[in-house]
Inverse folding.
């Protein structure tokens, strides 16, 4: 079974979006290099960021996101982002009317059900959990194996927190990787068990 990884780009002060749900400069590192990160040609990063990010992206079998993100992105028009095979959406509401039943999106109620479904879909590949409220709930449930963050040199002061509304202490191991890219610091931590 693949590991469960909580992931996002984040400000130095721990936010994944500002008060208006906007990422601001958090994704600038994804367009500020000269190495294409995917086939679109839109995402271009430094060679260092490519060497760190591309193998991780290639290992993702399923992504878990909340309904809020799904709605904000219009469900990525039915195509999972970053070439991921499946997206599991945590929601208390049914899938949108007219949603393509062939699109590789799965709507489940609750984070435990989301992780179980994503693990089933991903097999031995990585289950990625979007940071924020849903990611924080998965962390609080003890289901996260690893935390990855791309720390961008900006201070938001307020907004959407990387760990959501976590209200208890959770220990991580020392960083397994610390990689400096252009305008980003890539960090990877294992959860302490």
């Amino acid at each position: 079974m693949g590991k469960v990884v909580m992931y996002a780009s984040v400000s130095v002060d721990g936010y994944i979006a500002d008060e208006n749900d906007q990422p601001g400069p958090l994704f600038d590192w994804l367009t500020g290099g000269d190495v294409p990160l995917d086939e679109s040609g839109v995402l271009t990063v430094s060679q260092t960021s490519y060497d760190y990010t591309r193998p991780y992206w290639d290992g993702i079998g399923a992504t878990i996101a909340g309904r809020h993100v799904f709605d904000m992105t219009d469900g990525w028009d039915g195509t999972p982002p970053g070439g991921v095979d499946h997206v599991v959406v945590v929601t208390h509401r049914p899938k949108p009317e007219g949603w393509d039943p062939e699109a590789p999106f799965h709507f489940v109620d609750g984070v435990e059900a989301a992780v179980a479904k994503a693990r089933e879909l991903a097999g031995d590949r990585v289950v990625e959990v979007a940071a924020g409220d849903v990611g924080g709930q998965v962390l609080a449930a003890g289901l996260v194996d690893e935390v990855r963050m791309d720390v961008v040199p900006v201070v938001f002061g307020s907004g959407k927190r990387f760990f959501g509304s976590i209200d208890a202490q959770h220990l991580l191991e020392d960083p397994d990787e610390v990689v400096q890219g252009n305008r980003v610091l890539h960090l990877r931590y294992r959860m302490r068990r």
